[in-house]
Amino acid sequence: MTEQENRSCIVCGNEETQGIFIFDSFVCQRCEQEIVTTDASEDKYRFFIRQMRSIWLKQNA
Ligand SMILES: [Zn+2]
User: How many angstroms does the Cα of residue 5 sit away from the middle of ligand 1?
Assistant: First the structure.
């Protein structure tokens, strides 16, 4: 079984055990579901893209 370790979500900042990893960054299951179901024109989606960009910039630094 996988370890149940609390991770800090990069989108909402909450500590969760369930979620996905994008590079080394954690996105909780709830935010992942929101992103998947959110329309690209909505603010949440844009917020997520901004978060993603900061991760990518960090990865490339
Ligand atoms: Zn989250």
Answer: 15
Which of helix, strand or coil describes residue 19? Answer: strand
Number of domains observed in the structure of the chain:
1
How many angstroms separate the alpha carbon of residue 1 from the centre of ligand 1? 23
- Containing structural domain, residue 24: 7-55
In a domain, 50, yes or no: yes
Instruction: For residue 2, tell me if it sits in a domain.
Output: no
What tens-digit pLDDT sequence spans the chain (61 residues)?
Answer: 556 678 999 889 999 999 988 777 898 999 888 877 877 677 877 787 788 788 778 777 6
Closest CA to 53 of 23, 29, 12, 31: 23
